[in-house]
Each structure stands twice: as C-alpha cells, then as structure tokens.
Amino acid sequence: MARAVGTLDRQGDVVPASRRSVTALRGAGLLVALAVLVLVALLSVALGAKPIPLSEVVDVLVHRGTSNEAVVIWELRVPRTILGLAVGAALGLAGALMQALTRNPLADPGILGITAGAAAAVVVAIAFLGVTSLVSYVWFALVGAAAAAVVVYLLGSAGRGGATPVRLALAGTAISAALMAFIQSITLSHTDVFDEYRFWAVGSLAGRDETVLLQVWPFLLVGCLLALGLGGALNAVSLGDETGRALGAHLGRTRALGAVAITLLCGAATAAVGPVGFVGLTIPHIARAICGLDQRWVLAYSVVLGPTLLVAADVVGRLVARPGEVEVGIVTAVVGAPVFLALVRRRRIAQL
Amino acid sequence: MTVVTAQHADPRLPGRALCVGGLSFRLRARTVAVCLGLALLALVGAAVTLSTGDYPIPLPDVVRALVGDGSQASTFIVVTLRLPRLLTALLVGAALGLGGAVFQSLTRNPLGSPDIVGFTTGAASGALVALLIVKAGPAGVASAAVGGGLATALLVYVLAWKRGVQGYRLVLVGIGVSALLTSVNSYLLTRADVVDAQYAAAWLTGSLNGRGWEHVGPVAAALAVLVPALLLLGRRLRMLEMGDDVAKALGVPVERSRLALIVLAVGVTAVATASAGPVAFVALAAPQLARRLTGEPGVGLVSSALMGSCVLVFSDLAAQRLLAPTQLPVGVMTGAVGGVYLAWLLAREWRSGRS
Amino acid sequence: MTRHGETSRLWAEQLTLGYDGRIVADGLDAVIPDGSFTVIIGPNACGKSTLLRALARTLRPTRGAVYLDGQTISSYSTKEVARRLGLLPQSPIAPDGITVADLVARGRYPHQRLLRQWSRDDEVAVAEAMAATGVAELADRFVDELSGGQRQRVWLAMALAQQTSLLLLDEPTTYLDIAHQIEVLDLCADLHERQGRTLVAVLHDLNQAARYATHLVVMRDGAIVASGPPSQVLTAELVERVFDLPCRVIADPEAGTPLVVPASRRARVATEPAAGQAAS
C-alpha cells in the first residue's frame, strides 16, 4: 500500500489517499474503454464488405431513407453491430464469472458443458430433424446448453461440499467430452451434416438479423443483471471457502446463481452466433491485468472489453476478405491473442 | 537373495517396504492392486480385440497364431492385422496417460494436459496444413503433426521465458497461442473442400485405422527410451507437488527437473500423436481416473500409463465393433468412454463424501 | 574463504537480493554463529524472510554469495545441501489427499537413493520427528483436514525428519496458539541445546525471540541494524528506532532475558505528533 498521508473527512474518519486515487484511476480507465467501444461500434456501422462513403453513412443514420445503402446499414450492419455488442458483453461477463467461481485460469464458460450442449443440440437438429435455418438453431442451442449445464451442475454438486471449483471443472470436462464424442460420431459419418455443422461451429455474426437478437436478448439481459449483482459476493468467495463464509457470503447460493448466470449468458451467446471461445477465456485475464482482483471492477471491465474485442474482430473480418468475409470466431483470436500475449509478458497478471 | 517384506515398526506409515537384497522400495498395497488390476484389464481387452471382429477366432487359435503354430488365415488376421493395431493402442494409450499425468502434476491443475504448452493444437495445425494445403500422404501428415506440435511447444516456452519460466505465465501463454492456432485450424476446415475437411476432421480426432507393424516399431523404440527416463524422475515429480521452496529444500534441482519433465512429457505425447493423431481426452482423463482408483495423493505415473492403455484399447474395440460396419475414429470413443466413465466415477465418489 | 570458517558454517557476503527487478536488500553481510539459535527479527517487509530464503539457497542472490561449510552454497548439489541444511518455508502446499505420515516421510528424500527408497533409518527418523512435534496420533489423517496449527506442526515434523545439523525456520509459530508456540520454541531449544543443531528462525514476537535466541539479528529496510546476544542488542532505543514503537525493556521475571513492554496508550498518544494525521 502506498505510504500516502490520508485526510479526515467530515465525520473524522481517515480516508486513505491511496484508495481514493485507485478508484478514480479505475473509473477513468473504464470511461476510456467505453469511449473506445463506442468508436468501434461506429466503425462497425461505417465499414464493411461493401464500401460506403462516410458522408452517406451519416446521412443514412440520420435520415434513414430507402436506398441500397440504407438497407445495408439499417438491415445488416446495425443489427449485426448490436448483436456483436450484446454477445461480446455476455461472453466477457460469463468468462469473468467462470474464472472467479472456479479460480482456474484454464476455465472458460464452455467448460460447464454449455458449448458442447449447444453444439450437440444443433447437430441433432441438422441430422435428425432436417433443420437448416439459423433462426431455428437458436432454440435448439438454448435448450441444449441449458440441459448440459444442469447435468454438469448436478454432477458437480453431488454429495457433501457442494459444487467446488475442482468438481465443476472436472464434471464439465467429462460431460463435454461425452457430448463431443456424440457430435463427432454423427458429423464424421454424415458428410452433409458435417458441411452444415462446420460453419456453425466456427462462430459468426454473418446472416444474423434482428430476429436472432430478439430471440436471445431476454436471456442476455437477465444473465447480465444477475452477474453484475454477484460482484460483491464473488469478492468474498474468491478469498477461499472459509474466509468467504466468515465474510457472510452464502457459498452455495453464490455458486448456484453464478452457474445460472453463466448458462444464460454463454448459452444465449452461443445459440445466437455459435461457439466463440476466445472472448470468455482471455478477456477476464486482461481485465484483471488492468484493474486487479476486485471482482466488481473485473466484471465491469469485462462487459466493456468483451464487445470491443468482438466487434473490432468482426470489422476486421469484413474488411480483410472483401467482398467475402472471415468469420468473427476466427478473427477474434487472431486479433486478440497478440494483445493478450504482449500483456502477459509485460505485466504480472494477478493469480486467481 | 532373500525377499523380505518388512513390516513397518509404525503400522500407520503408508505402504510396506519391500527389501530385496540391497534394494528397497516402499509400495502401497492399494496402488499395486490397482496397477495389477489395470494390467489384467488391458489383457482382457487385448484378448477380446484379437478374437472378435468380422472373422471371430476362438481364443486357443489366437494363442496358437501368436506362437506361430496357427493356420495361415488366422495367423494373417491375428498377427498382421489385429496385433499391431492392438499394440499401437496399448503403447499410445500409455504414452498419453504418462504425458497427461506429468502435466497435471506440474501445473497442479486437474485440467492440465500437454495442450498447456499448445502441443495438441499445434499438432492439429501442422496436420491440417499437410492434409489440406500440401495434400501429403500419411507419413507426411504424421511428421507435420509432430513438427507443428513441437514448434508450438517451443514457441510457448520461449514466449513465456522472462528470466526463467514462471508457471502461471506459461499457462497463460499456452492459452493464447492455442487460441490463435485454433483459429487457424477453423479457417482451414471451413475453407477446404467438404470431403477433404471431413477427412481432416476425422484425422484430428485420432484414429488407429490401418495401423500396422511399421507403426509399432518406431513407437516402441521411442517409448523404450522415454518412458524409463520419465519413471526415474517420478520421485522428483512428487516432491515438486509440494511447491518449489519445499522441493528445493529437500534437495530437488527444481528448474532442471521441471524442464526435463516437460521435455520428456512432450516427447511421449509427440510419439503418440505421430502414430495415432491427437487422440482426444486420454491425456486429460487417464490420470484423473487412475488417481481416483488408487487413492494416492497427487498423480501416479505407472497407474496413469496403465489406465491410458486400458481406455484406448477399449475405446478402439468400441470404435471398431459398436457401429459395424462403420468404423469410427478411436478419438470419438475415447471421448465417450472416458467422459462417461469419469462422470460416473466422480458421481460415485462425491456421493460417498470424499472430494 | 575461511574468515568465518572457524566460528561459522553458514554466512553471507555482500548479498544483493530482490524479486523481479525490485531490490529488497543490498550489500548484506550476515554470519550465523555455529551452534547458535539465531533469530531474525524486524518490522514487516524488512527482508527477514528474503534473507532466510537466500541462506537456504531457495532464492538466488543477484550479487554476492552465501557460504556453507567453507564453499559457496551454489557449488554443492541441491541434494547435498539438503543433507546439511533443512528449511521450513512459509506457505508450503500440501498435495491433495496426502496423509500426515506420508508427508513427514517425504522429508527423508535427501537421504534416499533411487534403489534404496526406504530403510530402517528412515522409519526411525519419521517416528521420532512425529513424536517430537506431537503429531503421532494424527498419522492417518489427511493434511488438508487439519487445523492451521496442526498443519504447521506436521510441516515442522517433515523438516525434522530431514535430520540436518542446520535448520532454518521461516515463521514457525504462525497459526499456533500460545501454548503450542511455546511448545514449538521449546522443541527448537531442545534441538539446539541437546542435539547441538544450529537453528535460524524468523520470528515476529520480540519477547519470544529474546527468550529463546542465543544470537539476535535485527533488520530494517533490507539492512541489518544490529546483531549479537539479545541482552546486548535489545534495548528500548533500538526497538523504538527499528519498530517505531516507544517502549521499556525490563528483565523477564522468568528467564532474565530482555522483555519489551510497549509504552501505555496514553503515554504514546501524548508523545505523538499533532492529532488528525495518520500514517497508513
């Protein structure tokens, strides 16, 4: 702690100077991150596979109209950007929650079986029910993600002691492996199913209009509110079981609610755009590198950094391979990993 | 030479000392029983593999064929077709179990596996490039896989090195590099022709199809060197589990031992990958399964290796017979068998109260 | 280098110690008199544990060297050092699911070879160590189920099982209640007096340090401020200078060693600078 001289506030209590300045610094950082996010969102609307001059973009945004450009911007880019923001925030938040709950740097939200469950449900839809529309996938994926998460959580909390980090991670890994085996047994023996599945499995914002967003936004919103509300409890839980209980945190309840939030957030996100693993896995580390271990700040930064990365990656994906595009699930890691690696080398990231 | 089983003066000390001449070892009864049980199980799996299939051959005939006394048909089927595949499964399974055990012990993380250093993902990248871009043959794909894996492991180690390798930084760098390569792999899989892509995806799950004697030889030779080296370092591995300070205080050269263990573990994994592709889940599951059976603290090398062999032998059996005549890649079954077995074992153990 | 060789087996010359580029101590010279019970004391973050770890060779000095039995400690093999010098570190990790007896038995590692992994000597050493620390009846329990104090005694037993003539202890009395603290310190005194071992311990409690140490090393801000027998070193002026604590030093009525008595609150408040300012 800095050897700063404190001052007295009106009640005569000492307010350490160091603590005030840390909070101010973090708040300022968050505002900067928000500004960057807004910029990235604007870029996402202004840039894309079809080049549209900036003046026209502004014109269309203000006046709407019915030109081709208006259609592209209002029917394609704006919903896509909004979906990207929502999904990015959800994944970042889910990842931060997951790592706080399991205290395992290798844990991404998918480890609760969510990704595998969603994928298995989509494969079933493609192979046995002949479903081919993206919009229909969403419902299947939601159900699959929820079902898998429930099984994993039940398995992880069997017996005394409840769902500890190690148990959840192991249970999730076991169930995910079984589900992946199921998926592969179908996709590797049916070429047509494989062809459909391999594009969904990469994670993409393409072709998702506002219908998808309307399907998933309630889940995302509830999950988001739940997650942000758990910030304080997570701080206590991260200190270890005994200390956490001593601080009044309800361990079982926090874990259960956390698992629900993760399932809602990651399940809905995966259902909407397919599995995007990188965001949930690395954004929390980056957030912790910036703001330390206070979970409330980590969650706040994850909500902002997640969509920044995702939407920025989407923009890059749309520019790099014009007139086609590279899926966001692929570009996110290409864009984010070098940043992540540089950060890991430069700073000492606080251990979970 | 007398074999003396010395009863401990203090019966609460775990295991019994086994003294043979001037040598002495300490063995735990339960661990020995589990290892013997696993070896027996592998033998049963072997017997079933050799005697069943499209052409069922009764067990006595199998034995005769092995000894060299059987009919031409059974000798061909047993010795030329089934036996090398079985031996590959046994060896590769053991190698994967060992590699996983070492990484889980070093990282003190039950999710630890050779992919911590990005090996598995790098191997996949190498293989995909060879399969989809260069369109190489089996030998080329295997070498590309090993090359990719080793290059990635080296890259991760170098990137994590900053006046020594701090364990946590290694894990994070591994995550970053793996994620990057996963993207590359996804890109290749979605841009290639669907038939090629499906074939590549099958190779990536890990397969023992068509494995003959030309595979067994190199694998056995490589493992004959690497496995004893790993087992020799087993005691040091156990000391490292107590933290660097304690290990050093007890006389373990920490940095050197850790590096040697990582190199050897990557080595055995590379050998396994070269012959069967990146078989899913064995490296992760086998040590956990073995640990829960033996009840030993930390990870056990021998039991993990034996468990790996068992899992792979039975998975291959299922892969070949379950959906006959369709042959699934063995990696599909390791996920299913390993995943279900681990889930069941976890449920049973947790319900009984011991975490 | 035998300048200290006649009176000391373990000493450090011109040590510069640090972590990740941050320097904790510079130009440190420390001599551990042979056959002594040396205690290192000092305020938080003064470098006591850092010095101890350097002496135990778990921390490599940026400059300078530590000498053991006349040679630099780095010239020995790690196992060779482990046979002469034992360390009880601050936050050891107990592997999941390990029993007490198993953990104590691991302390025998420096004396074991690949082909000679267990012998009568090992058994005896483990039994003696467990008896001395009072954990013999916990032998079958899992270490992660024990209380903090019990766990500390188990780790101490492991260090004892190593049977070294030099023993370094990093805050061995943490988590222990007062009775067990005295018990552990009495055990250390026994090891020192009856078995003739040289002990070096980092302690927080000044009065315990004064009572048990034959040689005191006082540190502040990475430098050694004073060293010598407690009766000579521990004065009120030193305590105030090093710990920022006004006090009186009287003779301990039981042992005759220096007893630090902090000044009463009223006395301290009266001598403090203007109220309304607090140092954090």
Low-confidence stretches of chain B at least 5 residues in length (pLDDT < 50)? 1-9
- 3D shape of chain C: globular
The unreliable regions of chain C are 275-280
Order of helices and strands of chain B: EEEHHHHHHHHHHHHHH
Q: What's the rounded overall pLDDT mean of chain B?
A: 85
**Terminal-residue CA separation of chain B:** 44 Å
Overall structural class of chain C, as computed from helix and strand content, comes to alpha/beta
Measured between the Cα atoms of the first and last residue of chain C, the distance is 45 Å
**Structural Rg of chain B:** 21 Å
Quaternary state of this entry equals: heterotrimer
Content of β-strand of chain C? 25-35%
- Give the mean pLDDT of chain C: 87
Q: Biggest interface, and residues per chain? A: A-B, 60 and 60 residues
Tally of alpha and pi helices of chain B: 14
Largest sheet of chain B: 3 strands, antiparallel
Strand order of the largest sheet of chain B: 1-2-3
Sheet-strand content of chain B, in percent, reads under 5%
**Count of separate DSSP helical elements of chain C:** 10
How many beta-strand elements of chain C?
A: 12
Secondary-structure content class of chain B = mainly alpha
Give the helices and strands, then pairings:
The complex is a heterotrimer of chains A (352), B (355) and C (280).
Chain A: E1 7-8, E2 14-15, H1 17-46, H2 54-63, H3 68-102, H4 114-129, H5 134-156, H6 165-187, H7 191-200, H8 210-229, H9 231-237, H10 241-246, H11 251-273, H12 277-291, H13 295-320, H14 328-346
Antiparallel strand pairs in A: 1-2
Helix pairs in contact in A: 1-3, 1-13, 2-3, 3-8, 3-11, 3-12, 3-13, 4-5, 4-6, 5-6, 5-8, 5-11, 8-11, 9-13, 12-13, 12-14, 13-14
Chain B: E1 3-6, E2 16-20, E3 23-27, H1 29-51, H2 59-67, H3 72-107, H4 119-134, H5 138-160, H6 167-191, H7 194-205, H8 213-232, H9 234-240, H10 244-249, H11 254-276, H12 282-294, H13 301-321, H14 330-351
Antiparallel strand pairs in B: 1-2, 2-3
Chain C: E1 8-19, E2 22-33, E3 37-41, H1 48-55, E4 63-68, E5 71-72, H2 78-84, E6 85-88, H3 100-105, H4 120-133, H5 148-161, E7 166-170, H6 178-193, E8 198-202, H7 206-212, E9 215-220, E10 223-228, H8 230-233, H9 236-243, E11 247-251, E12 258-262, H10 265-271
Parallel strand pairs in C: 3-8, 3-9, 6-7, 7-8
Antiparallel strand pairs in C: 1-2, 1-4, 4-5, 9-10, 11-12
